[in-house]
Write a structure and sequence with these properties.
Radius of gyration: 22 Å
CATH class of the largest domain: Alpha Beta
Shape: globular
CATH superfamily of the largest domain: Vaccinia Virus protein VP39
CATH topology of the largest domain: Rossmann fold
CATH architecture of the largest domain: 3-Layer(aba) Sandwich
Number of domains: 2
Largest sheet: 8 strands, mixed
Number of helices: 16
Helix content: 40-55%
Length: about 400
């Protein structure tokens, strides 16, 4: 297996509507990723984005390939279908006015059914009053609600969002359900996911919400008084103006474990694999989005109100990461597929280990090329430093023998 090392210069970012701040997102280096896939130099009908996340990679490839977008997290499938659906042709620009009427009526119904729940941040006087408001809302997890679509009001009031913001989240989610499997559903759900991130008083994810203190009081109040509909409407209009589908190509969206997905990949396809690099399970950081999409009344626990059924990736554990890569390489080989693997110098295993594992499985039937790029990676509040310097690798495995 021959090996080349190539250094890539910075590229201009491909413009795709932004939906969500996401750990490990390839949004800032999309051109590096797409150029690497082009560099494989193979004629393939399908590309499979095996760990799709926010789905920006599949979205950036939809004019060149049929796209199979996969991620075990349900929220990823919503983002994928949003990017791959022809929203511009399917939804008239004035649709937002009709949706606002439906959602506003639902908000009124909800508040009329629960008149005792009033939490006003506009006239609070000092830290102690705000703290009392927060705790009163957090206690709603033990209350009974009289209307359906109340999960966020019950689970998350006074945590990442206020009660009022949660009522709007639940109400938008309720109306979205009436459009299930239609283009409006995906545009609404992705716009809601985006809006939730703008009004949440966490650090860009949902691993923890911030407790109010005297020092962060003013900052938290800014988020507590934000109007979620404003951000929802702005994103909804942006999506239906800018997303024009897949340009006659096909697409598939699945929510499978990566091994199950590999079994369904088209023979000879290109697989783009961007597995987790570190011991951070994405299900902990984005559990609220999973609940938003599934809306399945999960059991939640701990301060962060995590789902008890959170997925644990084998790529995030020292005891299973090597076996996970072995399975990835074997699954690729069985399908006579080509592989573009994203990883970094901060990963659970080293580049040399990856090359050694791959060499033992692929043998002389594949040529390996290693591309690398230096850039600053956002820690999204996981450390005191906002960014860290990393070397991002894309390791290309091109099948060369029959």
């Amino acid at each position: 297996m021959s090996v080349e090392n190539l250094i890539q210069e910075p590229q201009v970012e491909t413009k795709i509507p932004h939906l969500l701040k996401y750990m490990g997102s390839k949004r800032e280096i999309l051109d590096f990723v797409t150029d690497a896939i082009d560099q494989l130099g193979v004629k393939a009908d399908w590309v499979c984005d095996l760990f799709a996340g926010t789905s920006v990679v599949g979205a950036s490839l939809k004019s060149k390939f049929n796209v199979h977008s996969n991620d075990i997290q349900a929220y990823s499938s919503v983002l994928s279908k949003t990017y791959l659906t022809d929203l511009k042709s399917a939804i008239p620009f004035g649709k937002i006015a009709e949706l606002k009427k439906e959602v506003t009526e639902r908000v009124k119904q909800f508040k009329d059914a629960h008149p005792a729940f009033v939490f006003d941040y506009h006239n609070v006087n000092g830290f102690e009053e705000v703290e009392a408001l927060e705790k009163a809302q957090q206690a709603l997890i033990d209350e009974d609600f009289y209307l359906g679509f109340h999960l966020f009001a019950k689970y998350y009031s006074g945590t990442y969002w206020t009660y009022d913001q949660c009522v709007w989240i639940d109400s938008i989610r309720c109306v979205a359900e009436s459009y299930k499997d239609m283009p409006e559903y995906y545009a609404m759900m992705s716009s809601l996911i985006s809006a939730m991130s703008y009004v949440s008083q966490s650090t860009g994810h949902y691993a923890q919400y911030r407790d109010v203190t005297e020092s962060n009081l003013l900052d938290i109040l800014q988020y507590r008084n934000r109007d979620i509909w404003y951000y929802f409407e702005r994103k909804f209009n942006e999506l239906i103006l800018n997303l024009n589908g897949t340009a006659t190509r096909e697409y598939r969206v699945t929510t499978l474990d990566y091994l199950d997905c590999l079994s369904t990949v088209k023979p000879g396809a290109i697989i783009y694999a961007d597995p987790p690099y570190q011991s951070v399970h994405y299900s902990r950081f984005y559990h609220a989005l999973e609940t938003l999409v599934k809306y399945d009344n999960p059991v939640v626990a701990h301060k962060g109100r995590y789902r008890e059924d959170r997925h644990q990736s084998p790529f995030c554990k020292k005891t299973t990461v090597i076996q996970a890569f072995v399975a990835l390489f074997n699954g690729t080989k069985v399908k006579n597929a080509h592989l573009a693997l994203s990883y970094s110098d901060t990963g659970m295993i080293s580049l040399d280990q990856i090359k050694s594992l791959a060499s033992g499985i692929f043998g002389t039937g594949y040529r390996i090329t290693i591309l690398e790029k230096k850039y600053k990676h956002s820690t999204m509040g996981r450390s005191d430093e906002k960014q860290q310097d990393v070397v991002e690798y894309i390791i290309l495995f091109k099948k060369i023998n029959g």
